[in-house]
C-alpha cells in the first residue's frame, strides 16, 4: 500500500499562467514547466518529459510512476460556478503544515478575525472524522462554525457548515455552505506543490456560486485569507509536521489534524514530516 | 474617491490606512494584480500608463503615486503634515528594499534578494536609532508626539519586513512605534499586519 512520494500527482502551475519555460522545484528536484502552443509540458533536470494532467485550472505532474488518476471533484463540475484561479503564494513551511493549517477551524477567530471567525464564538463543536479506506482519503464532516463573513458573497454572520477532504497528501478540498445557494456546496481547495521539505508553493483554487462579486474580488478575498495564515505558518515550531504525539496536547477541535497525521503515517508519506515525537 | 486597490500591496494599504485614520471613505475597486496582472490591462493602462497601483480617482483628479495620494488625502489636515519629503523618500526606499524582498519571497519577483534584504536592514537600523532617540525625548512617532503622514508612509513596509525574510526581533524601538500606530483610533489591518489584541488581564 505504501508508495513513493514521487508517485503522487502535484500541482506545478496555473494553466492560465504558464507561458515561457519556468524553472521551479518539486520535492527538492529541479523541474521546468512550459507550454508549446497549446501543449503543456514538464521536464526533469535531465530534460526527460514527465507525465502531465490538466485539471482544476492547474497543470499537474508526477516525477515517478503515477499509480492512480488524479482525484476528481465532481461538485466543481456543476454548471453555473465561477472557477477562480487564485494564483500562488510561496511559504517557508512544510507542505504538510500548509495542509494541516487549511484543515484547522479553531484558529479562525484569532487569525481571520471578523471574517471567518470572531470572539466570543470560538468553540468548535464536535464533528465527525474518518479515514475512508476505499478512497484512501481523510474526511471531516458535520463541521459547524459561526462566521461573521463566510465568503465574499455572505452578508452578516452565519453558521457555516463545512466538510473537509484530504484527497492526496498535499491537497485538500473544503466544501462549504454556499450563502447565495442553500443546499449547494462551495468548493475551495488548497493544492500544495512541495518545493522541498520546508518550503512550498501553495495554489488555492475555488469553484463558487457567486453572481455578484467580480473575479478580482473573489481572488482578493482568498489571497487575503491565505496571507493571514502565511506568517503563522512560517513561525510554527518544529518546522516539519510531527506525526507522533509528544509535547503537543491535541484537543477535540484537532480531530482532523490527528486523523491527517495518522493517515500520513499509515501510507508512509513522510516528506515534510518529523518522525521524532515532538 | 475611488481607489484602485490590491489587497496585498503595501502601497495600497498606505492609502487605505491614511484614509481610515482621517475618517475618509474610499470606494475600493479591486484589481486582480496577481495572478491575472490586471494592472497591466488596457483599461488600467489608460488610467495609469505606468501600470502601477494604487490609483486614486477623485472627480477629475487622477493620482498614481502613493506619496502624492497621501499628500492629497491630508491636504486639509495640517496636523498630519510636517517636513514630509525626506520621510516620503525613505518610504520609497523601503518599498525598493523590504517591499521588493517581500514580493520576491511571496510572488517570485525577480530581485537580487540578498541586496534587497541588506539595504532593508541598513534602513531599519537607521530608523531604529532614530526611534530610540525619539523615545528618549518622550516621542512615540517618527516626527514627534503625535502620528504624522511620515509614520503612515513608512509603517507598511517596515511591518511587513518578515514577509520578505527580514526579522524585526532586534528592533525594540520600531516594535513600540508599530504598536503605537496599531493602537490609533480607526486603525485598519492588512494580511501580515495584525490588529492589537487586548492585553489587559480580564477581571
Low-pLDDT sequence parts of chain A: none
Major beta sheet of chain B, specifics?
4 strands, mixed
SSE series of chain A: EEEEEEEEEHHEEEEEEHEHE
Question: What would the CATH topology of the largest domain in chain B be?
Answer: Glutathione S-transferase Yfyf (Class Pi), Chain A, domain 2
CATH class (first level) name of the largest domain in chain A = Alpha Beta
Q: What is the CATH superfamily label of the largest domain in chain A?
A: Naphthalene 1,2-dioxygenase Alpha Subunit, Chain A, domain 1
Order of helices and strands of chain B: EHEHEEHHHHH
The CATH topology assignment of the largest domain in chain A is: Naphthalene 1,2-dioxygenase Alpha Subunit, Chain A, domain 1
Estimate the helix proportion of chain A, in percent.
10-25%
Radius of gyration of chain B: 17 Å
Question: Strand portion of chain B, in percent?
Answer: 5-15%
- Mean pLDDT figure of chain A: 93
Structural class of chain A: alpha+beta
Secondary-structure-derived class of chain B: alpha+beta
Q: Can you summarize the main beta sheet of chain A?
A: 8 strands, antiparallel
CATH class of the largest domain in chain B: Mainly Alpha
Q: Please tally the β strands of chain B and state the result.
A: 4
Helical content of chain B stands at 40-55%
Q: What spatial order of strands do you see in the largest sheet of chain B?
A: 2-1-3-4
**Number of continuous helical runs of chain A:** 4
Detailed description of the structure:
The complex is a heterodimer of chains A (278) and B (203). In chain A, strands 8, 9, 10, 11, 12, 13, 14 and 15 form an 8-stranded antiparallel beta sheet that branches. In chain A, strands 2-3-4-5 form a 4-stranded antiparallel beta sheet, with no helix packed on it. A 3-stranded antiparallel beta sheet of chain A has the order 1-7-6, with no helix packed on it. Chain A is globular and about 55 Å long. Helices cover 16% and strands 36% of the residues of chain A. Chain A contains 4 helices and 17 strands. Chain A has helices at 95-103, 108-111, 215-233, 255-267, and strands spanning 10-14, 22-26, 29-36, 39-44, 49-50, 52-55, 58-61, 82-85, 89-91, 128-132, 137-147, 158-168, 171-177, 185-196, 199-208, 241-242, 273-274. In chain A, a hairpin with a 4-residue loop joins β4 (39-44) and β5. Chain A folds into 2 domains: 1-70, N-terminal domain of TfIIb, CATH 2.20.25.680; 71-274, Naphthalene 1,2-dioxygenase Alpha Subunit, Chain A, domain 1, CATH 3.90.380. In chain A, 42% of the residues are buried. Chain A is an alpha+beta fold and 278 residues long. Chain B is an alpha+beta fold and 203 residues long. Chain B has 2 domains: 2-78, 3-Layer(aba) Sandwich (Glutaredoxin); 81-182, Glutathione S-transferase Yfyf (Class Pi), Chain A, domain 2 (Up-down Bundle). Helix content of chain B is 47%, strand content 7%. Chain B contains 7 helices and 4 strands, in the order βαβαββααααα. In chain B, strands 2-1-3-4 form a 4-stranded mixed beta sheet. In chain B, α1 packs across α6 (149-159) and α4 crosses α5 (113-136). The longest helix of chain B has 24 residues, at 113-136. Chain B is globular, with a radius of gyration of 17 Å. The model of chain B has no long low-confidence stretch (mean pLDDT 96). Chain A binds chain B through residues 14, 16-17, 85-90, 92, 113, 214-217, 219-220, 223-228, 230-231, 234, and chain B through 6-8, 30-32, 34-36, 38, 105-108, 162-163, 165, 191-192, 195.
Amino acid at each position: 500500500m505504501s508508495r513513493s512520494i514521487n508517485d503522487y500527482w502535484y500541482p506545478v502551475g496555473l494553466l492560465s499562467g504558464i507561458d515561457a519555460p519556468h524553472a521551479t522545484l518539486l520535492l527538492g528536484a529541479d523541474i521546468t514547466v512550459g507550454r508549446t502552443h497549446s501543449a503543456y509540458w514538464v521536464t526533469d533536470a535531465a530534460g526527460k518529459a514527465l507525465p502531465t494532467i490538466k485539471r482544476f485550472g492547474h497543470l499537474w505532474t508526477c516525477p515517478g510512476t503515477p499509480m492512480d488518476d488524479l482525484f476528481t471533484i465532481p461538485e466543481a463540475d456543476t454548471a453555473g460556478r465561477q472557477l477562480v484561479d487564485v494564483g500562488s503564494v510561496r511559504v517557508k513551511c512544510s507542505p504538510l503544515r500548509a495542509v494541516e493549517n487549511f484543515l484547522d477551524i479553531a484558529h479562525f477567530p484569532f487569525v481571520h478575525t471578523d471574517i471567518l471567525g470572531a470572539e466570543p464564538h470560538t468553540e468548535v463543536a464536535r464533528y465527525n472524522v474518518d479515514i475512508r479506506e476505499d478512497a484512501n482519503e481523510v474526511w471531516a464532516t458535520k463541521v459547524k462554525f459561526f462566521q461573521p463573513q463566510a465568503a465574499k458573497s455572505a452578508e452578516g454572520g452565519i453558521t457555516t457548515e463545512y466538510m473537509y477532504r484530504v484527497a492526496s497528501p498535499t491537497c485538500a478540498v473544503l466544501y462549504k455552505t454556499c450563502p447565495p445557494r442553500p443546499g449547494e456546496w462551495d468548493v475551495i481547495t488548497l493544492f500544495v506543490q512541495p518545493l522541498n521539505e520546508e518550503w512550498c508553493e501553495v495554489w488555492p483554487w475555488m469553484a463558487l456560486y457567486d453572481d455578484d462579486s467580480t473575479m478580482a474580488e473573489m481572488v482578493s478575498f482568498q489571497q487575503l485569507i491565505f496571507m493571514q495564515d502565511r506568517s503563522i505558518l512560517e513561525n510554527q515550531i518544529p518546522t516539519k509536521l510531527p506525526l507522533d504525539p509528544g509535547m503537543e496536547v491535541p484537543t477535540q477541535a484537532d480531530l482532523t489534524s490527528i486523523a491527517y497525521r495518522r493517515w500520513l503515517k499509515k501510507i508512509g508519506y513522510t516528506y515534510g514530516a518529523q518522525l521524532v515525537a515532538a | 474617491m475611488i481607489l484602485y486597490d490590491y489587497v496585498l500591496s503595501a502601497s495600497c494599504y498606505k492609502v487605505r490606512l491614511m484614509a481610515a485614520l482621517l475618517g475618509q471613505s474610499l470606494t475600493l475597486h479591486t484589481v486582480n494584480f496577481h495572478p491575472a496582472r490586471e494592472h497591466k490591462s488596457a483599461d488600467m493602462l489608460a488610467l495609469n500608463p505606468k501600470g502601477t497601483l494604487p490609483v486614486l480617482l477623485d472627480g477629475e483628479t487622477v493620482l498614481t503615486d502613493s506619496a502624492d495620494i497621501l499628500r492629497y488625502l491630508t491636504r486639509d489636515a495640517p496636523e498630519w503634515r510636517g517636513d514630509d519629503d525626506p520621510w516620503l523618500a525613505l518610504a520609497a526606499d523601503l518599498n525598493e528594499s523590504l517591499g521588493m524582498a517581500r514580493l520576491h519571497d511571496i510572488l517570485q519577483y525577480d530581485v537580487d534578494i540578498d541586496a534587497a534584504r541588506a539595504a532593508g536592514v541598513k534602513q531599519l537600523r537607521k530608523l531604529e536609532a532614530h526611534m530610540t532617540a525619539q523615545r528618549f525625548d518622550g516621542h512615540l512617532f517618527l516626527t514627534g508626539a503625535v502620528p504624522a503622514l511620515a509614520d503612515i508612509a513608512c509603517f507598511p513596509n517596515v511591518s511587513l519586513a518578515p514577509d520578505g525574510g527580514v526579522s524585526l526581533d532586534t528592533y525594540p524601538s520600531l516594535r513600540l512605534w508599530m504598536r503605537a500606530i496599531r493602537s490609533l483610533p480607526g486603525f485598519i489591518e492588512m494580511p501580515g499586519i495584525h490588529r492589537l489584541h487586548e492585553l489587559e488581564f480580564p477581571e
